[in-house]
Amino acid sequence: MTQLVQQPLPDHVPPELAMALPLFSRRVVYENPQETLIPAMHADLPPITYVTNIFPGDQPGWLLKNAADVQAMLRDPDNFTKNGMGKWAQNIGENWLVIPTEADPPVHTAYRKALNGHFSPQKMFAMKEQVRERAAVLIDTFKDRGHCDFIVEFSEKFPIFIVLDLLGLPQERMAQFLKWEKELLHTNDWQVRGNAVKCVKDYLLEEIEARRREPRDDYITKVLDFDVDGRLWTDDEVLGHCFNLYIGGLDTVTSLLGNIFNYLASHPEKQNELRADPSQIVLAVEEFLRAFAPVTAFRIATKVIEIQGQTIMPGEYVAFCSPVVGRDPAFYEDPQDIRFDRKAPHMSLGSGIHKCLGMHLARLELQIAVEEFVKRVPEFRTKDGFQVPYFVGNILHVPDLQLQWD
Fold first, then answer.
1. 161 neighbors 398 (Cβ within 8 angstroms)
2. Distances from the Cα of 218 to the Cαs of 74, 164, 166, 208, 359, in angstroms?
3. pLDDT score for 3
4. CB proximity list for 292: less than 8 A, separation 6 or greater
5. Are strands 27-29 and 48-55 parallel, antiparallel or unpaired?
6. Which domains are assigned to the chain?
7. Whole-angstrom Cα distance, residue 68 to residue 333?
């Protein structure tokens, strides 16, 4: 399961805790990591591990296996920072932050004060019929065909339609946006990643400048009027926030949908539970978020810290791997069992001050996607003879999912 590391390690890292893990190898495999790798990690790994390939570019960091340790970290902004966590700007020699994701208190509090109202449950609920129409139109293109390429025909397009609508960006550029998104989030090559950062940054700056010249009725125009402590946001802050919406809105829900529908395709009884009683879908989505969360996120230690008896030095990365935390057997009873009545708390949308800004929109998108799909498509399954691929890396997802139905 693991590969012990031979190269020199920092003096405070015990050699027995240092290893490369297959879950972060950033490649396609054909075994379901939620059923194999993750349960094995809970069975075999210590509570904290120095994982040499945990960050893109095969850079090291500490993995916390237990949900309780992760929860404590996420609620501790004094000992952990998110400043520059993703190394997006640093990769191209700049120093703007992804807003509010990479901001720390007290300025983070001011950012969220400006932003929360725009992503409130009420604001997102007002988008419900628009979101439903996007889902229905996509499903209607293939529902009578008896099969679909789920990722290409639905899960990639559906959440991106919504985000592009919100930002006022052109739907006809979707193919280009998807290319940049994959180069940003699904590569281990820092040059590819950096080139994509430059492309997205340049494009967003053009759009921001266009709104300054000619304001529109869209979210980017609204951002230009946001303030922090009585001053308007700087150009870097506006860019950093738009970049945040781009990388968050174009990928996470897509990855979740692939994981969820891969599960439903192999568990027709679960599909039919939701068909028979759609009122279960709200709680089912919370269970899906627990079990199929895709993202590994990070904090950076700000001082010497001890976790589970291990010293962590300032500047070292500490990982919150939501696919691992969501299946912690010490935190969840029978975590491999998907139960729509579980009602268990999860951290898949974050915890503490950095709880996901778009969590209400993400929930709405997932609920409507499941509801419309099971309503419009009969019992579906993985296409005969198709072997499901799984991408293991910082965003655990199914890159290709071929479905069919009778």
1. no
2. 32, 10, 6, 11, 20
3. 60
4. 34, 256, 259, 260, 263, 323, 326
5. unpaired
6. 3-405 (1.10.630.10)
7. 14
Contact, 49 vs 5, CB < 8 A? Answer: no
Give the angle subtended at the CA of 382 by the CAs of 376 and 383, to the nearest 5°.
100
Could you tell me the two tokens for 319?
């990982």
Largest CA distance in the chain: 62
> For strand 59-64 and strand 80-81, is the pairing parallel, antiparallel, or unpaired?
unpaired
Q: Are 369 and 257 in contact (CB under 8 A)?
A: yes
* One-letter amino acid of 349: L
pTM of the model: 0.94
One-letter amino acid identity for 224?
A: L
Count, residues in the chain:
406
Which class for 244: exposed (0-12), middle (13-18), buried (19 or more C-beta within 10 A)? Answer: buried
* pLDDT value of position 289: 97
Report pLDDT for 249: 78
Report the Cα 22 to chain-centroid distance in Å: 19
- Residue 55, amino acid: F
Other CB atoms within 10 A of residue 288 CB: 26
Q: Token digits for 86?
A: 């993703």
User: Which tokens is 284 given?
Assistant: 């089912």
Low-confidence ranges of the chain (pLDDT < 70): 1-7
Half-sphere exposure of 171 (CA within 13 A, CB side): 9
Output the CA–CA distances (angstroms, integers) from residue 315 to 76, 85, 311, in the order listed: 15, 10, 12
For residue range 311-329, list pLDDT tens digits in order.
999 999 999 999 999 999 9
Which residues, at least 6 apart from 71, have a Cβ–Cβ distance to it below 8 Å?
347, 351
Q: Which long-range contacts (CB under 8 A, 24 or more apart) does 101-104 make?
A: 101/244, 101/248, 101/354, 102/240, 104/77
Q: How far apart are CA 226 and CA 317, in angstroms?
A: 31
User: Which long-range contacts does 108-111 make (Cβ < 8 Å, 24+ apart)?
Assistant: 108/77, 108/353, 108/354, 109/353, 110/228, 110/229, 111/228, 111/237, 111/241
CB-facing half-sphere around the CA of 121: CA atoms within 13 A:
1
CA–CA distance from 279 to each of 255, 285, 371 (Å)? 24, 11, 9
Secondary structure (3-state) at 310: strand
CA distance 42 to 21: 13
258: closest CA among 370, 105, 104? 370
